[in-house]
Amino acid sequence: MTVRRIGLFGGTFDPPHFGHVAALRAAAATNRFDLIEVTVAGDPYQKRAQGPVRPAALRLEMAKAAFASLPLVEVSDREIRRQGPSYTIDTVRELLQVADEVDLLVGADLTAQISSWHEASKLKSLVRVGVVPRPGGRSEVPEGWDSYEIPMEPVDLSSSFIRGIPPSFEYLREFLPEAVIALYESFRG
């Protein structure tokens, strides 16, 4: 089955939080997509360089718990099944085998980095970039990238912030979907 347009929302999701949920709802509300694929990075090489990352299988379970009931959203393990570092370009190439167009959905805090991603010059020719606003984040995509902004109120939340707070239900329920909390608390790695 071929779909016209897929939105690709990839990430480490360690853990997936209400900011991610808001971004996916806002992207779905644009009516630009037939499907939004949430792809959990199997080997998030850039994040791993910053410190330990929870196992991919747990991050996938948390993403499914957080996003599976959202309209148009499918959570994928395609990058987990792939050997080696998780490169967005590889996922885009796979998706273009079943879609006419793939839009890359990224937070405004990441837009300045996309030109440094693996095979960025090729990636730039294959995707449009939907920018999710972030507090204090500039929605400027490097020159040459075709982009637009996902309309939504920025959510001031990050996975790194959540990893820094006490991992107990009373703290986490402000930031994580309830179905994610038990999974997140189950691993203290």
Task: State the gist of this model.
By secondary structure, the chain is of the alpha/beta class. Helix content is 34%, strand content 20%.
Architecture overview:
By secondary structure, the protein is an alpha/beta fold. The chain has one domain (3-185): 3-Layer(aba) Sandwich (Rossmann fold). The protein has nine helices and six strands, in the order βαβααβααβαββααα. It has helices at residues 18-29, 45-48, 56-67, 78-81, 88-95, 120-126, 159-163, 169-172, 178-185; strands at residues 3-11, 35-40, 73-76, 99-107, 127-132, 147-149. The chain has a six-stranded parallel β-sheet with strand order 3-2-1-4-5-6, sandwiched between helices. Helix 5 packs parallel to helix 6. The termini are far apart.
Share in β-strands:
15-25%
CATH topology: Rossmann fold
Mean pLDDT: 90
Strand order of the largest sheet: 3-2-1-4-5-6
Per CATH, the class reads Alpha Beta
Number of domains: 1
Envelope shape: globular
Largest sheet: 6 strands, parallel
CATH architecture, please? 3-Layer(aba) Sandwich
Q: What is the subunit arrangement here? A: single chain
The SSE order reads: EHEHHEHHEHEEHHH
Q: Tell me the total number of β-strands.
A: 6
Amount of helix: 25-40%
Low-confidence stretches: none
Rg over C-alpha atoms, rounded to the nearest angstrom: 16 Å
What is the helix tally? 9
Indicate the structural class: alpha/beta
